[in-house]
Amino acid sequence: MTEAPTDNPLRSLNCLEFLCDKTEECVDSKTGPSCVCKKGFKTKDGICININECLDGLHNCSMSHKLCVDTEGSYKCEACEKGFEVSTFDDYGDEDGKCTDIDECLIPGTCPANHICKNVEGSFECIKKCPEGHRINSLGYCDDVDECLSNPCRKNEHCSNVKGSFRCTNI
Question: If we measure between CA atoms, which residue out of 83, 116, 113 comes closest to residue 100?
Fold first, then answer.
């Protein structure tokens, strides 16, 4: 950053006559012109350096599920994050740059057998599904449910638990 000395006749200069670095802009003041960092730059050890908006979290790319790419004095949002794809088009058939969630559950084989696929933003979850008459235990295995514990049969019937179900037989 450069500033005209206050006891110098340079203070009669203005920004049209004062040179600043390419990362600076000139500002006229009562004491004469001075150079300040342009937007997207910050002062470090007396010079203007680029602000990395991507590393500093000063960008809005993640709101649109895009990746942040730092540029000199700014940043740009490019390509979709993992789990998202460009999927909308403008009136001319060109991509308009909007990223939307990929529903991985629409892809056959995303989850193994006996699992239900649940789409979540940017990803998916495979949730184990047990056959009828079974439930998942604390270890993630399917155990048979003993339906007879809830007395599903009539008074004159005996309940027999069978794998995945039960039977009622006359006494």
Answer: 83
22-33 burial: b if 16+ Cβ within 10 Å, else e: ebbbbeeeeebb
Tokens representing residue 66 in the block:
């895009």
Eight-class DSSP state of 83 = T
Contact criterion met (CB below 8 Å) for 27 and 36: yes
Distance in angstroms (rounded) separating the CA atoms of residues 153 and 142: 24
Residue type, 18: F
For 57, 145, 153, the CA distances from 150, given in Å and listed in that order, are 56, 10, 9
* pLDDT, tens digit (0-9, with 9 covering 90-100), for 31-78: 889 999 999 999 999 999 999 999 998 988 887 788 889 999 999 888
The span from the CA of 119 to the CA of 130, in Å, is 19
Please name which of 48, 49, 86 lies closest in space to residue 67, comparing C-alpha atoms: 86
Phi-psi region of 164 (alpha: psi -120 to 50; beta: other; left: phi over 0): left
CA dihedral 100, 105, 110, 113 (to 10 degrees): 170
Convert the pLDDT of each residue in 107-140 to its tens digit. 999 999 888 999 999 999 998 888 889 988 888 7
Q: How far apart are CA 160 and CA 25, in angstroms?
A: 87
What's the token pair of residue 87? 């999927």
